[in-house]
Amino acid sequence: MIKQILSAQLFWMICCFILVFPVLLVNLGINPFIEDEAIRGTVAMEMMYSGNYITPTINGAFYYYKPPLYNWILTIFYQSFGISEWSSRIATVFFLFGFGNSIYLTHRKVGFKATFSILAALIYITCGRVMFWDSFLGLIDIFYSWMMYLLMVYIYLDWKAERWWFLFIRGFSLLTIGFMLKGYPTFLFMGCTMITMVLITRDYKRLLHPGLLVGMTIFSLIVGGYYYLYNQYHDVSRTFMPLLEQATSRTGIWHGIGQVLLHLITYPFENIYHFLPWSLMAILLMRKGIIARLKSHDFVWFCWWAFITNILTYWVSPQVYPRYILMLVPLMFTVMLYVYQESKPTDLRKKILHGLWGIILIGAPIFLIVGVYSRDMSIISSLGVKVALFFIGFLLCATAFLFIKKHRLLIVVTTVLIVRMVFNYLVMPIRASENIATKTSTQAIEIARIYGEEGISMYKKSVIDFTSTFYAEKELGYILDRTSDTPYKIIDQRLYTIPDGYEVIDTFMIRRDERILNVIKKQ
Hints:
The structure is a single chain. The protein is mainly alpha-helical. The chain contains 21 helices and six strands. Helix 3 (35-50) crosses helix 4 (69-81), helix 5 (85-109) packs parallel to helix 8 and helix 20 (436-451) packs parallel to helix 21 (466-476). The protein is globular.
């Protein structure tokens, strides 16, 4: 009876869907913001405080490095759920589910069966970088990547269906959204994907379709309209160079040839690490006749070339983060999943892949026990019960993987979700208790609580980190700027000496370099 249950695909599907929702929500707001999260949150919060949704600011100073769309989105979540880490991060979870749904629907549209389409969505959500980093941070990248994925696949779908007006209208609409999220990098995805379709179809004339002018008009009216409004508040020309620097600062333009060459060698291996365990399927591509096999399916062939043309910029850029290519990863996962499903059980590469996954599954309960007994876990409530349940889950998955070969992908997905649950319940609370940001955010809140009612601001151009700014402003209910005439000032003594007539009345630590800032007041 038990073996029949474990052998059923429906059982593992149910396991995945039961787990995937809670694992992305448990302890979502337990850890304080990292700096990038604090930037997004602070800009949105200052928009709400000032009532100015056109010119983004941080500490009241103009912020040039991202257009404002994601900050507008965050203000909706803040107004709905309150200003908090949870509110910022639930937006990410919401967009991740939207992204997964789009992956599923795209594969259904191009003719894949429901099981394949569900797997394509699940392996993206459960890849290492998404599951153990980006899915629980309040960053822009999941939503931006979702929009860029839609941009690429709709170019393919509309081109193949010969919907030429839709190709350009929908394409430039998504380009507009992308630009208003991250600026110039968006042009890369549209340009490279259009080049991909030209290379595949050998149809150059479509680029001269009148829909191109309509699409460009849509982009110009929306983006131009925003910057026209921006110019009513501040010189719009000052925004363009910072956006360009943000887009190019990590590319080979700003780094020596040595770093570029080293990155060319290491980058593929870095991505294999970041997108485990599914990146291991790359071993299946190392075979004779792989190009013919990929070419046999139009969408798979598109995914292959769209990934290659778009990844090249990042491959020659020494300082890029894995989250910058989250929109490209599902393209390659489609390729690898297709080859996996087409490979025979007797294929040596598939056997090696299953062996590597088996090591991960068998190792999971061992690492759980070692991790629990190698450090102080006294802050974890009901530790024994949790460990026992996790261990049983791992043991069940490892046993099923070894003896039930039919649904190994779903079994590995289930295992990854259990690992994330372990991370939520056992790792996140420990991180929160040991995180320096927990201490510094508490101190920033305390300073704001003590001196905020009478009024506090920054002294001249004293530097404070974004995380402390977010928590101080959240408590203050107003912007911690550098221009207000307030009784209390925060001063950075690395930049300024205590001015005459002022005395230090308090200190607090910020996360950046664990520096100490002083609170001063006129004597």
